[in-house]
Design a protein that fits this description.
The complex is a heterodimer of chains A (about 425) and B (about 400).
Chain A: H1 2-23, E1 26-33, E2 41-49, E3 52-58, E4 69-72, E5 77-80, E6 82-87, H2 116-123, E7 126-131, E8 139-142, E9 144-147, H3 154-157, E10 170-173, H4 188-212, H5 224-233, E11 239-243, H6 246-259, E12 263-267, H7 275-280, E13 285-287, H8 306-313, E14 317-319, H9 331-340, H10 345-350, H11 354-359, E15 377-380, E16 391-396, E17 399-403, H12 407-414, H13 430-433
Parallel strand pairs in A: 1-4, 1-5, 6-7, 10-11, 11-12, 12-13, 13-14
Antiparallel strand pairs in A: 1-2, 2-3, 5-15, 7-9, 8-10, 15-16, 16-17
Helix pairs in contact in A: 2-12, 4-5, 4-6
Chain B: H1 2-19, E1 22-29, E2 37-45, E3 48-54, E4 65-74, E5 76-81, H2 119-125, E6 129-135, E7 142-150, H3 156-159, E8 160-170, H4 186-212, H5 229-238, E9 244-248, H6 251-264, E10 268-272, H7 280-286, E11 290-292, H8 310-316, E12 321-323, H9 337-349, H10 351-357, H11 360-366, E13 383-386, E14 397-402, E15 405-408
Parallel strand pairs in B: 1-4, 5-6, 8-9, 9-10, 10-11, 11-12
Antiparallel strand pairs in B: 1-2, 2-3, 4-13, 6-7, 7-8, 13-14, 14-15
Helix pairs in contact in B: 4-5, 4-6, 8-9, 9-10
The chains are: A alpha/beta (about 425), B alpha/beta (about 400).
Chain lengths: ~425, ~400
């Protein structure tokens, strides 16, 4: 009994101290602030309180409370926390190989929060991720949207809606990755046919559920696979669709039209060939630029100009790391290469932040520096698109989760002996703020 | 008739090389053989650098084509690649970088697998790469030979600079075999290598009498071994004519490579070297240069302790270091050595030292400094042209020149 009381007391205290820590406003002054939504502010002030952005503006226009903890960022650059719409970190593996369609599988049941990839992600300025199973299936499972806020459990990382439901999308793929020996499809036509059959079954299941209203007697038995697909049909789960070749892209658009599911196209190597069609369908693209074309047949026409072409066509475009395909620590580089290929600087930065937030239905909370949004931001020592620029600090919900000045964080930022093994979750810097270790 | 044709051909050749007389003006020219030349010019005649200096001092001869760029560097050298043997489709028909039939095949020549029309060659050439050290990949204990080529040429004979530049050897997990096949452990790797090198030693010894005193006609076969291509290749290593290019990442595997070198006394180049920062003194003492893994190589498996700063640490310690695009089995199918050096530049190395990794240092380690790696009178007219700092993400390579010919002019 005493033990339980003690535990309760400790729990209450822990909550109280951590809440208290967040109550102290933080004022970041002097940096060039690039809010992504709105014009850059030279020598701006960012005021953060209780994990959200309280105020933002030029020096002198933001009233700093007397109690605020001040941070002098003169000469630095502040941008919103980076959002990766397609990541595979967390030691999740390639996926179960028993069948091509697995809407029942939740990626967060496979995730190791101590994977060193999380430490590297915050070192790259990432603050929110869509972690997805692989592309070796037509439908490999449910994805999860996480905040890199540092937690010992996956539950602590998940983003939730106001009802506490864990947020995520559904990962699908077409083209060559998901073509394998039976029961996997052997052709593109078969791939589409298998998925159509699945969605038709899911539609029937949804109708039965609707007909039963709230009568448990009439409800069909629970079916985890169909439940997942119903969420897709109802638009509660966005489809994140791996697709490279121009004809595969058109197949995704065709299926999306037929079944009415919401979709984000991922990779989109040949998107530049059908940019007008993508724009007309009002479907966003999350793209990746890698250092050479090929490596597989569907990526031989990959070019750096894709971002610029999609931007001009009016397509909402984000970047992703596809980590381990590219390293989360170098995510800023993606925008650099996009601009090299013809994208505007503004669209390049938006593609690392706000565009991704929109694709994850999270733009009300994250993706730009705006009053009321989560205080997720990155402090840089220079131009975000320069190779020489370093991520100095990464902040999530008003707390510092990466500090290049901390030797252990630096080890993960640049690598070195011991960096590759499983790590403690990164509440390295929470101590000074009142929580963590 | 034949003579007439030859004469015609000669005239034709002369005409084409005459059209290749080229001058390149650069706001900044990094010659890598001296200080940066501001507002300079490079004159290329008959494929060689004929003059270099400030534009005010060096006159451009009449009739020379003139190109201009913000920044000019020597043509870039990729010190370790598999491009040309490995193709971008990544299907069986274009993957000749790794022969799996046996763990030790030093006789496999790179020239016999190089596809001059491979799209990835054109790709890296577009980023200023003019010289490639390419060939058999890491992945078998002894996977085969490497060679040095220019990134142009209709046939491998046109492209090749050094037909046998090294023999590729892999220590550690990269060349372990499963299913009860050898080598199944690190210990077995070393015993297999030592046995084969001892065999090569005997083979070399058995050749000596024949070489000292050439046999008369009809006597050749007496007391001499039958030709063994594999042992002949390793004999060239023991004679120090060809280096062993040893791929090793973990400090333990690098130490094994040094142990092997000590026993058999060959020229060694360390390839990869993810944990080389743990053995700096040992590498220095052994005089081993390092072709470091790509900065952006995936930091997992044997590279789990890799660091963006290794190139900087090794170079500052006085080791000879070059950068490579490496070996990729998936996407991207090749890295671009310019981008890899850029990340090294930003992680402790700085601009000029990083440029050395892909120019002078690479040429030095590969033994081709007499021709490439820096811009000086008499050297090959190989240049890379940029519209800004070559390492910046947003800069473009606007031209690549090989032996006085503009071989890429797409802005990339």
């Amino acid at each position: 009994m005493l033990k339980i009381a003690c535990t309760l007391l400790i729990l209450t205290l822990a909550q109280w101290t951590s809440a208290l820590a967040q109550e102290v406003p933080h004022a970041f002054t002097g940096a060039k602030i690039i809010p992504v939504e709105g014009e850059p502010i030279e020598a701006g002030t960012l005021l953060v309180e209780a994990g959200v952005i309280k105020a933002l503006g030029p020096a002198g226009k933001v009233a700093i409370p007397a109690t605020a903890k001040r941070f002098d960022l003169k000469g630095k650059v502040v941008i919103p926390g980076l959002i990766c719409t397609h990541s595979h970190i967390g030691g999740i593996g390639g996926g179960d190989g028993s069948g091509p369609v697995q809407p029942d599988v939740r990626i967060y049941d496979s995730l190791n929060v101590r994977d060193s990839g999380f430490r590297r992600a915050v070192a790259g300025g990432l603050t929110a991720l869509n972690i997805m199973p692989g592309s070796g299936h037509l439908l490999s499972g449910q994805t999860v949207y996480v905040k890199l806020r540092g937690s010992k459990t996956i539950e602590g990382l998940c983003l939730r809606d106001k009802d506490g439901r864990i947020l995520g999308g559904m990962k699908m793929a077409n083209g060559t990755n998901s073509q394998r020996a039976a029961p996997f499809p052997g052709t593109r036509s078969k791939s589409a046919a298998l998925m159509r059959a699945e969605f038709i079954r899911a539609g029937e299941y949804r109708d039965k559920l609707a007909a039963a209203l709230d009568d448990p007697e009439k409800k069909p038995p629970r079916d985890l696979r169909l439940e997942g697909l119903v969420e897709v049909l109802e638009g509660r789960r966005v489809v994140h669709h791996h697709t490279h070749r121009h004809d595969d892209i058109m197949t995704v658009l065709r299926l999306s039209r037929e079944f009415g599911f919401r979709v984000v196209l991922h990779h989109v190597s040949e998107g530049w060939m059908v940019a007008e069609e993508i724009a007309r369908a009002k479907v966003p693209c999350s793209i990746i630029l890698v250092d050479s074309p090929g490596g597989k047949l569907e990526a031989v026409n990959l070019v750096f100009k894709t971002g610029g072409i999609l931007e001009k066509a009016g397509v909402l475009t984000a970047f992703h790391t596809d980590d381990w395909i590219t390293d989360s620590r170098l995510f800023l580089r993606m925008a650099g290469l996009g601009v090299r290929g013809g994208m505007s600087r503004e669209a390049g930065l938006e593609a690392l932040t706000l565009a991704g937030a929109k694709m994850l239905d999270l733009d009300k909370r994250i993706g730009s520096l705006k009053v009321g949004k989560d205080a997720d931001f990155v402090i840089l020592n220079g131009d975000p698109l320069s190779v020489y620029t370093k991520v100095l600090e990464t902040w999530v919900e008003g707390r510092k989760v990466f500090d290049r000045g901390d030797p252990d964080d630096l080890l993960h930022a640049v690598g070195g002996y011991g960096a590759g093994v499983d790590q403690d979750p990164y509440h390295c810097c929470f101590g000074e703020e009142g929580g963590g270790r | 008739m034949r003579r007439a044709l030859s004469a015609l051909l000669l005239v034709f050749l002369a005409a084409t090389s005459a059209s290749a007389q080229l001058a390149v003006r650069g706001k900044k020219i990094y010659t890598m053989a001296g200080p940066v030349v501001e507002d300079g010019v490079v004159i290329i005649r008959e494929g060689k650098v004929a003059a270099i200096g400030r534009a005010a001092d060096v006159a451009i001869p009449a009739g020379f084509k003139v190109l201009e760029a913000a920044v000019v560097t020597p043509g870039l050298i990729d010190a370790r690649s598999v491009v040309g043997l490995a193709g971008y489709f990544n299907h069986k028909h274009d993957q000749d970088q790794l022969e799996r039939s046996s763990p030790m095949q030093p006789e496999l020549r790179a020239v016999d697998s190089y596809n001059t029309r491979e799209a990835l060659i054109e790709w890296v050439r577009g980023y200023g790469v003019t010289t490639l050290h390419t060939g058999h990949a890491p992945g078998e204990l002894i996977s085969g030979q490497t060679m040095i080529v220019k990134t142009t040429g209709n046939t491998v004979e046109d492209a090749v600079m050094v037909p046998t530049a090294g023999i590729s050897l892999t220590l550690g997990p990269g060349s372990l075999r499963g299913g009860g096949q050898s080598p199944g452990t690190r210990g077995k790797q070393m015993s297999m290598l030592r046995a084969r090198l001892l065999e090569a030693k005997s083979y070399l010894k058995s050749l000596e009498p024949r070489e000292k005193k050439p046999a008369k006609a009809g006597e050749e076969e007496k007391n001499t071994p039958p030709v063994n291509l594999g042992l002949a290749a390793l004999a060239s290593v023991l004679r120090k004519e060809v280096p062993l290019l040893i791929t090793a990442h973990r400090a333990q595997d690098i130490a094994s490579a040094l142990r092997l070198k000590k026993e058999f006394d060959f020229r060694m180049i360390l390839d990869g070297g993810a944990e080389a920062y743990l053995l700096i003194d040992e590498l220095k003492k052994a005089g081993v240069p390092v072709i470091i893994h790509p900065s952006m190589a995936r930091f997992n498996g044997a590279l789990q302790n890799a660091s963006f700063e290794t190139a900087a640490r090794l170079k500052k310690a006085g080791l000879k270091v070059a950068m490579q695009s490496g070996y990729e089995s998936y996407v991207p199918k090749t890295r671009v050595v310019l981008f890899e050096a850029a990340v090294a530049a930003a992680n402790g190395l700085g601009f000029e030292s990083a440029l050395e990794l892909i120019t002078t240092s690479a040429a030095g380690i590969l033994g081709i400094s007499d021709r490439v790696g820096s811009l000086a009178v008499g050297k090959d007219g190989d240049l890379a042209l940029f519209d800004g700092d070559p390492f910046e993400y947003t800069t473009h390579c606007v031209g690549t020149i090989i032996e006085g010919r503009l071989v890429s002019e797409i802005s990339r």
